[in-house]
Amino acid sequence: MLRRFLCLCLLCLCCVAVPVNAAGITNFSKLVTADYWIENNTDEDTIILDAEGIAKLNAEVRKKTPAVYDLENYPATIKGRNLKSMLTNFEALEEDLYLRGNKVSDNYKNILRSLVNTKAVTQEVAVQYAVVVKRANLRNLPTGEALYYFAADNNFDALQETALDPCEPVIVLHTSENKQFHYVQAANYRGWISVYDIAYTDRDTWLQFLKPKHFVVVVGKSIKLKTWNDNVEYQLGSRIPISSEDNKSYVLNVPGRNKNGNLEKVKVKVAKNASLAEGYLPYTSNNIVRSAFKFYGEPYGWGGLKSSVDCSSLVYNAYRTVGVYLPRNADEQEASAGLHIDLSKLDDAGKLEAINALPIGACLYMDGHCMLYLGKSNAIPYVLHSLGSYYKDGKSVNTMRVVVSDLTLQRHNGKTLLSDLTTAVVYK
Known about the structure:
It contains eleven helices and 25 strands. The strands form seven sheets. A seven-stranded antiparallel sheet has the order 1-24-23-22-21-25-20. The protein has a five-stranded antiparallel sheet with strand order 11-10-9-6-12. Residues 1-22 have low confidence and may be disordered. By secondary structure, the protein is of the alpha+beta class. The chain folds into two domains: 2-49 and 283-426, endopeptidase fold (from Nostoc punctiforme) (Alpha-Beta Complex); 54-278, no CATH class. The two termini are 30 Å apart. β21 (363-366) and β22 form a beta hairpin. The radius of gyration is 22 Å and the shape is globular.
């Protein structure tokens, strides 16, 4: 399944400088700024959901998406047999894989399987609490080695699941055989993380990061804060607890990892600036568009690699700036909560009619890809998306960046983005 999705990413969608009304990707100066779409947004700054409505939406997301957890109510112990079932999902290893251009041997795959360390799983497993201390990769298996489905590929690491930001709370379930990785449950993903990227703490301290009463949200593309000797990156939508503030600055409680692997709060003073908002932004379509455009032109970052975003994390990051926490993956976002419009049985004309009725900031989904709807220019609908490649004249054209385009781009199957659309979702 993952290989199929990667093939879609590698072969499917993006990039060429074209004038405003030419088919495909646009670099026209007006259309590639958030301001243009905001100026033409008839909803302006209408509040879509207040705090109570957002809480209900998030609860519905958790209810409809098995991968999204209410971490506060995660059980203190789990059955060992259930943990073993999680650990032994070796789907990625069933395919041919390549390491630095060379095919991975069966022996190498068996070593990876052994690192999972299922023999150490007890009948009943007590969970532990930790907080991410630096932007960290969450892996499918306990290794930092990048493996690919194609020898020439260096973009789509088959073992990369997602990236977690500092301050994110996780539940530690297991440790690899070589003691270098922990298997953790984050709010919307499970996987392996380096032991040096998290810090253990008690539940009460952990809850202060899970449910902070006073916090800032990163509303720039990213910021870096110095924690001891490290400049730690926080990406768009990251949430950081506030210790204190005055008229000009915040003192933030950021997590640090001491030599024993335990959490120590580090107070970092930072000037109030446009990259930080106190609390969530109001949930308006304008704020969703502003947030998403912070990544315009940035590299395509599969699973959060390259300090950037793929198609679904672009959507995820934009929405978490307003306090809406969606699933991480596109297929789960598509099936999650919100107002769903089924496009799968409509012809192109019917799909265009449905899209034209959408509010700005709605999301468009198809097999293996998602996009953020921006609105219309000269009656043409445009979207913002993080895109791998598209097809032109029977050949794949690589893009690997966040672009603005219309829906005429051709996919690997010969269909346009418009023709392949399956669902539109308004998250309310």
